[in-house]
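W.,

You were right to be curious about this one. When I first looked at the sequence I had no strong expectations either way, so I just let the prediction run and decided to look at it fresh. Below is the sequence, 67 residues in total, followed by the output.
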Amino acid sequence: MTTTNKELFLNQQKYIADLLQDSGLLHTKLAATPLDSKLKLDSDGEAIDSLSYYQKLVGKLIYLTIT
């Protein structure tokens, strides 16, 4: 939030910074498709680790885009 004498500007800079910090992406380089370099797949090509982390991250990004 930024204020001046007559105006109040609301933004989501802190929410975005917290989201990047929580996801471990705060100090990463840009990439077209960020993937974990240690991602392990099963024989069907599915990720072995839980998808709940990514589902939460996507949910937060959706929230960010609609607010």
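Here's what jumped out at me. The chain has a mean pLDDT of 77. And, maybe more interesting for your project: Strands lie at 2-3, 8-9.

Coffee later to discuss?

I.
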